[in-house]
Amino acid sequence: MCRIGAIKSLNYIHPSMALQLMQSQQKGHDNSGFAMVMQNLGGIFEPYKHLPTLSMACTDEGVKIAEDLLHEVGFSRVTQWTPEVNDQPGLDINAMPNYVFETFKYPRTYKHSSRKEKEELLLDTRLTLRRALEENEEGFVYSFWPDLLTLKEIGAPRDIGTYFNLWEADNRFTAKVITAQCRQNTNYDIVRYAAHPFHLQGYTALANGENTFYLKNKEFQQGLHRGYIGFESDTQCLLYTLHYVHRELGWPLHYYKHVVTPLPFAEIQQREDQKQLLGIRQSLAHLELNGPNTIIGMLPDNTLFTCCDAKKLRPVVIGRDNNTIVISSEVCGINEILPDRDWEIDIYPNEREVVVINDDLEVQRWKQ
Amino acid sequence: MEAIKLNDVTANDLPWKIIYDASRCTMCGSCVATCSFRAIVPKVERRRIVFSEGNFPEPKARFSAVPVIRQAKSIRDYCRGCGMCEKVCPNDAIKPVRNPDTRLPVITRCLGGDSIKRGGRKNLEGSIRTLDKIRVGRISQMTDPSLDAQRHTFDLLAPFGRILPPHKLPFTPDDDQQLITNEITPPVNWIYPVIIGDMSIGALSWRMWEGVAMAVAYLNEECGMPVRMCSGEGGVPVRLLKSKYLKYIILQIASGHFGWNRIANAMPHMVEDPAGILIKIGQGAKPGDGGLLQAGKVAEHIQAIRGVPKADLLSPPNHQGLYSIEESVQKMFLSFNAAFKFRVPVAIKVAASATSVSVFNNLVRDPYNIVGGFFLDGIDGGTGAAHEVSLDHTGHPIVSKLRDCYLAAVTQGRQGQIPLWAAGGLGKTGDLAADAFKMIALGANGVFTGKLILQMAGCVGNDMGRCNACNTGLCPTGITTQEPALVRRLDPEKVAQNIVNYYLAMDQEFKKLLAPIGNSSLPVGRSDALISTDRAVAERLQIQHVC
Fold first, then answer.
1. Residue ranges per domain, chain A?
2. Looking at the structure, do residues B445 and B506 belong to the same domain, yes or no?
3. Cβ neighbours for B481, distance < 8 A, ≥ 6 positions apart
4. pLDDT digits (tens, 9 = 90+) for B140-178
5. Do B43 and B186 belong to one domain?
6. What are the Cα distances from residue B440, in Å, to B27, B145, B528?
7. DSSP tag of B332
8. Chain B: residues touching A (Cβ < 8 Å)
9. Is B231 left (phi over 0), alpha (psi -120 to 50) or beta?
10. What residue in B sits closest to A269 (Cα-Cα)?
11. Which of A251, A272, A276, A283 should be substituted to probe chain B, the one whose Cβ sees the most B Cβ atoms within 10 Å?
């Protein structure tokens, strides 16, 4: 079973904190992988917040294919960071030859383009790269987005941390928001693309649970947007629904909850906004999420949120101190990294709640 | 002695033989009185009895006249196997037995020079039903737990009405981050996923129709189940049109437009909108054929409701003046939408056919967003009267066609925009919840059912040639007749009670099917929940093949 976690802090934090958060929950997952998305980057990426960073794992040939493609589109590299790997024998990791974290300038032709046009370019470029690298399995492109990077690997999270030297905190590789998940062994094949968190145009999602409406979600989403691809995991559906509701339809975040876990008809009929809620239930019926789930989501503006399925079949807890807020599947993870917090103010969200954390670490609890 | 000629009709030629035991018969006459088909008659037989009275054998013969029951030998008054004689006989002295050597299909045509007409359903023996080759095989366990059918709450409702694509919803966020809307959207009613199918007053006796209407009112008002019934083509009693219960009725208009004069006249007096309008283009049991109500059933009250004289009432095979799908959209849908001021969803019912997907595609792409439902009726559906050749040999099975329509919608990203409702032999084995559930997982939003409702009321007909005489007006159970003596056999309150109880049982069974797949709302299109041991079925329906 997946275990998920997220840390949001006023200060830049190192991924070692995310590893600690997840390590104490290791009995709950199966030690088959580790994946994280870092957003609002510090360290070596801090000066380049407005420029897109490519996160990719690939072969030597993959590096060449990607560089050629990016050059062809007109991107020019401004910085890159290659993690120093500690390839000691006996580590449980199924590593790729290269891990690429490169920041690029936009093509000159995009000098006067709008933000939206640039965002579409980034998506198209990532999709092109993915397709090109897929042919001979030369690599995996996880994200290509400003102020955000992704690391995923197959193996034991502890060993993955050792391999990338992530247990030792430093100031070079940091972010103010980190979401992480420990499990590669999804219900489907073990492929790198199947590990959440997933990212699309500034939106990130990860989940602990099952989406029993996966097929319905997938069949509907395939036709909604060119970026809704892959479907190696049922959690991707949750990301695509978030992206669709918030970005494509332009609806406020709290309507996401109404889409994935709609209120029962009997309750909708008591509401003043029943016309809107029924409209959502009708038109977005195929995006409903059924089955046990806890979702953690992150928006382009760094807003972090969590919500559960309508029967509260999956746990989640939120703990905090003055500088940091942690969302975790199990409270032991929070105890590990925030041992001195006031645990009496921990939040255990209910099935009709969305807990939202803004950039000032203000916590809001929205009732559906 | 009567002289018998080779081509005279005898009991051997008929589909049912009456087995009669004179030694058990008390001559009460119940069987003859109850047989609505006049298929048995009292008769006197001449019997020769040999007896001996003294201490030694002195055989003598005596002739006596014995009253007995005999089978009528007529292609008009023949036994339909309904078994009413057996039901009423106090001594088990009489019963019909199926005659596998029947020559009725041949001799009826030879003697009548006309096609055979009957009611009921397809009577050709078939193979195992497709739905029975499918199981709900995706069971939630462990990380994805099954739900508790008793404890959890379930949303068992289906949409009736046109559903907009998400990006067409006229919602915009205001300053308080609330979506606001001032525009009118197409009306959608959320109703129970099993509609009581369109059976008209005329086809049904007034007591039967009243019993169904009572059941629907009870299910809504007392059980909280928003079940809807469709009027069928034949009008609605004015008292009901002007009552608050109209909201539970879907009004049907078919090619004969029977009853619509009264409906139109009642519109200013309606206190509630009807649940919907169903435009019937075709019917699964007799595709390409219109309605047929034989004069025998056009009683005085039927003449009044329909506004017609006593005559055979034939609806044309198609709506006159509709030459294209576009026209059906523009003319009929717009006029009915307008008639009820765009408050009532308007849907279409067609017979399943090799062309159904084309029709569906045209409707789902219509730019007006006004077609509020696609009712697809398969070959195993029933009818009050039809030509037997239509019943048995024309039509299309419902399962793959429903699936095709759903997948056509998926291909276009339009699933759910026109709700799909399926019928035609569903619940044939008496187990409607399972059939409906499988159809829903294949892509139906809901199902509708007619024959099974009659069976709940006491109909004894089946698809092996039993009864199927709804067209004659001689229904032995009082369900499909307008003969007062026969209609009085039916207790409308008992009809209502049976239907209500069946729905309550079915509702439980739906939950028992939803719980193991871990869903609390209907799994429309969740074909991953289905499996089949039949490779051909699995491949055709795109579900998992198992063995």
1. 4-367
2. yes
3. B36, B205, B297, B473, B474, B475, B487
4. 887 778 888 888 889 999 999 999 999 999 999 999 999
5. no
6. 54, 21, 12
7. I
8. 140, 143-145, 147, 152-153, 155, 157, 159, 163-169, 171, 173, 177-181, 185, 188, 190, 410, 412-413, 415-416, 517-521, 523-528
9. alpha
10. B190
11. A283
Residue A185, pLDDT score = 57
Write the Ramachandran bin of B369: left for phi over 0, alpha for psi from -120 to 50, otherwise beta: left
**What does the alpha-carbon distance between residue B418 and residue B538 come to, in Å, rounded to a whole number?**
25
Using DSSP, state whether A85 is helix, strand or coil.
Answer: coil
Examine the fold and report which residue of B87, B114, B141 is the final residue of a domain before the chain moves on: B114
Q: How far is CA B403 from CA A96, A224, B156, B432, in A?
A: 43, 21, 21, 18
Domain boundary among B63, B83, B114: B114
Tokens 């074909």 identify what position?
A: B527
Exposed/middle/buried for A68, CB within 10 Å: 0-12, 13-18, 19+? exposed
Q: Are B433 and B514 in contact (CB under 8 A)?
A: no
CATH of the domain at B331: 3.20.20.70
Closest CA to B382 of B454, B474, B472, B473: B454
Q: Match 């075709």 to its residue by tokens.
A: B282
CATH number of A4-367: 3.60.20.10
**A220-279 residue pLDDT tens:** 999 999 999 999 989 999 999 999 999 999 999 999 999 999 999 999 999 999 999 999
> Is residue B140 assigned to a domain?
no
Structure tokens at A116: 């939206």
Is A265 within 8 Å of B181 when comparing Cβ atoms? Answer: no
Token pair 């939630």: residue: B140
Query: Which parts of chain B register pLDDT below 70?
Result: 1, 321-323, 325-330
Residue A326: helix, strand or coil by DSSP? strand
Query: Nearest-5° angle of CA B394, CA B278, CA B122?
Result: 25
Residues comprising chain B, all counted:
547
Radius of gyration of chain B (CA): 27
Closest Cα to residue B161, out of B332, B351, B370? B370
Is residue A300 predicted with pLDDT exceeding 90?
A: yes
- Which runs of consecutive H residues, i.e. helices, occur in A284-349? 331-337
- CA distances to B71, B136, B227, B290, B350 from B402, rounded to whole Å, are 45, 18, 22, 22, 12
Show the tokens assigned to B64. Answer: 């006596």
Range of the domain at B87: 11-114
Gap from B293 CA to chain A (nearest CA, Å): 39
Percent of chain A past pLDDT 70, that is, above it, reads 98
Suggest the residue from B142, B155, B178, B527 to mutate for an interface test with chain A (most A CBs closer than 10 A): B155
- Parallel, antiparallel or unpaired: strands A353-357 and A324-328: unpaired
- On whether both B261 and B205 belong to a single domain, the answer is yes
Nearest to A251 among B143, B173, B185 (CB): B173
Residue B427's Cα: distance from chain center in Å?
10
First-to-final CA distance of chain B: 65
A50 SS3 class: coil
Whether residues B283 and B392 share a domain: the answer is yes
**pTM higher than 0.90:** yes
Q: What is the ipTM of this complex?
A: 0.93
| Residues B222 and B194 sit within 8 Å (Cβ to Cβ) | no
Domain tally for chain B? 2
Smallest CA–CA separation between B152 and chain A, in Å? 8
What six digits make up the tokens of B203?
């086809």
Are B355 and B413 in the same domain?
yes
How many CA atoms does the CB half-sphere of A92 hold within 13 Å?
Answer: 11
Regarding whether B227 and B78 lie in a shared domain, the answer is no
Strands A203-209 and A293-298, how do they pair? antiparallel
Q: Are B165 and B418 in contact (CB under 8 A)?
A: no
pLDDT confidence of A183, banded at 50, 70, 90? confident
Region class of B142: left (phi > 0), else alpha (psi between -120 and 50), else beta: left
